[in-house]
Write a structure and sequence with these properties.
The structure is a homodimer of 348-residue chains.
Chain A: E1 4-6, H1 8-20, H2 26-41, H3 52-61, E2 71-75, E3 79-83, H4 89-107, E4 109-117, H5 123-131, E5 135-141, E6 162-168, E7 170-177, H6 184-193, E8 202-203, E9 209-210, H7 213-218, E10 220-221, H8 227-243, E11 265-273, H9 280-295, H10 311-323, E12 325-327, H11 329-342
Parallel strand pairs in A: 3-4
Antiparallel strand pairs in A: 1-12, 2-3, 4-11, 5-6, 5-11, 6-7, 8-9, 8-10
Helix pairs in contact in A: 1-2, 4-5
Chain lengths: 348, 348
């Protein structure tokens, strides 16, 4: 069998060591390593450790700042207009969401809108931080174009994800969804495997439905619910591109191709302190009642269990912590290669 | 040709007069009349003047309180836990969103979470209020069950709509979407016309895809994007049923069938004061730039124009204000009948 099983702590430490070779401070390098490994363990491999080489190249080229900094352009107790100063997106994400959480402890809610940021990984990671501190969390980000407005054949909005998280007794409930039916990554996989894709995933460059992934990657990703997903993706750009004053869709520089110009991504982070509305224990008990009722609903034939959003992903994650993370040869070798380039011994 | 063309002002006044016969104060009756007529003019006829008879019956039976009242259970400058005291949903909606807007002028953001409310019509109406006052508006509400969690054949969540609004120069951009692919009303129409429905709208009572509207109305409405729409509808219930402390899905009493027990619907209203982040004129200019760019994108063959969310509906509305509102005979006659029952002369 090809592939490797690696320990999550060792993998986190290795990525963190790599980042530090480029001047990322130890605690910030740790944030990035933890995020990438967490995404890998959640099964969100598109945002997992395979991103390491791209982040390393961006750091090495100096297109993103190695040391985290920020500036507050405007604020009240409940809102912050945050300039991320072209810092690493994941560090900005953790710091900005914690700022929202801390302020919400006073005011009940806080919205931090950040510009001049970079790709920050899984939006759900930041929403989850709030839920793990007894709050409702919301996180959205814009991204380079992949979705066309309804009626157009040209992408404008990114797949602009929306993440929501709520505490319960145990693991929080997290929704972390792109506003497209599937991620572009699924087309790339189908291309590699020479398989067709279901109708409803992508449109050709002429805006026609297609089952050919080769046509799909040249075209656009279909938004969920047609004009509804267009609207959701558009509003993510309104919040992250306009309220946060970052770029909108096509003006944003692509992290894969452009190693000269900063991305200027925008994010919004919102934390809502449940205890300001009602006792947290009352909230979580009502959550448990609802979840128990949903799990007891009649199942469609062949369905073993009804899951909460991210319940399956949390189970995957916990298994990976116990049993190790499976990495394909290609990913493992690419990571090893990074160690060779930047002079870090890979002990995983 | 059957049908009537009626003046919007006369129609509003007539509905307002009807409501006042049941003890609704004049200014509150006006809010309800304006809302129903606005929905009718927007083409959201499912939430339009055909609802008048149900609202009248609920007022007459005393299952909803005729006079608006509310109680604040908990508050900061930026959040309000609002008890709607079983008032008419549309009056609560206008008052609660205005409260959110007024507080956001100080704090930059305010979230009002209301329980013990009733059906409040179009969520987009309240989000629009914020946009018309230079703010970003968000409004969500839960509703009786219509959507099944992924894997179940039984509905739990309502079609739980999400509304978002943003100011621009001129009419705001508004997204007002149910989290189901289509509203249940579309199945009822297909039933009446003896037509089949597209696959992807509804599931049978066994959770199987169907193109038969008769099977669909006995089953559940499909959420947008599969598990994504399930997650969105679930989070609307978390915010409106649990944070706001109203009922969740199946515990909510149905406004069409139950004229004894209050509904206990929950809503959330959020206003974000853009001027606390950056100058409003800068925001609206960036909105206009984005909209101009989207409208200039290449169009799919046969598409005359790329529209912003609700742009078409605003055009319909403005035409109806100028030229009158077309009402089908059945709707017109039902309205006339209400006048007979409650002793109000219909002059429309």
């Amino acid at each position: 069998m090809s592939g490797h099983i690696v320990n999550h702590e060792a993998l986190t430490a290795y990525i963190s060591d790599l980042m530090q070779t480029q001047g990322v401070p130890a605690d910030e390098a740790r944030i990035i390593g933890e995020h990438l490994v967490e995404a890998e363990m959640f099964g969100v491999t598109s945002h997992g450790v395979s991103r390491t080489s791209t982040y390393m190249k961006r750091l090495h080229e100096g297109v993103v700042n190695a040391k985290w900094s920020y500036r507050i352009d405007a604020e009240t107790q409940s809102i912050v207009k945050w300039d991320a100063c072209n810092s690493m997106g994941m560090v900005t994400g953790v710091k900005a969401m914690q700022e929202a959480i801390d302020r919400a402890k006073e005011s009940g809610i806080c919205l931090v809108a950040a510009n001049h940021s970079n790709h920050f990984g899984m939006a759900g990671y930041y929403a989850r931080m709030a839920a793990e501190q007894g709050m409702l969390g919301i996180c959205i980000t814009n991204a380079p174009p992949n979705i066309a407005p309804t009626g157009s054949s040209r992408a404008y909005m990114g797949t602009n994800p929306i993440a929501l998280a709520a505490p319960r007794n145990g693991r929080p409930v997290i929704l972390d969804m792109a506003t497209s039916v599937v991620a572009m990554g699924k087309l790339v996989v189908a291309q590699k495997l020479g398989k067709s894709i279901p109708e409803g995933w992508a449109l050709t460059a002429e805006g026609k439905p297609t089952t050919d992934p080769n046509e799909g990657v040249k075209g656009t990703m279909m938004p969920i619910g047609g004009y509804k997903g267009y609207g959701l993706a558009l509003f993510v750009d309104i919040f992250c591109g306009i309220l946060a004053d970052a770029e909108t869709g096509p003006h944003m520089n692509n992290l894969w191709h452009d190693f000269v110009n900063p991305q200027n991504v925008g994010h919004c982070f919102c934390a809502i302190d449940i205890s300001k509305f009602l006792p947290l224990s009352y909230f979580t008990e009502k959550m448990e009642r609802m979840i128990a009722e949903i799990k007891a609903l009649p199942k469609i034939e062949g369905v073993p269990e009804i899951y909460m959003p991210e319940e399956i992903e949390f189970a995957k994650r916990d298994r990976a912590v116990q049993e190790g993370i499976p990495l394909a040869d290609a990913i493992y070798n690419e990571l090893a290669e990074q160690g060779g380039i930047y002079g870090v011994e890979m002990k995983i």
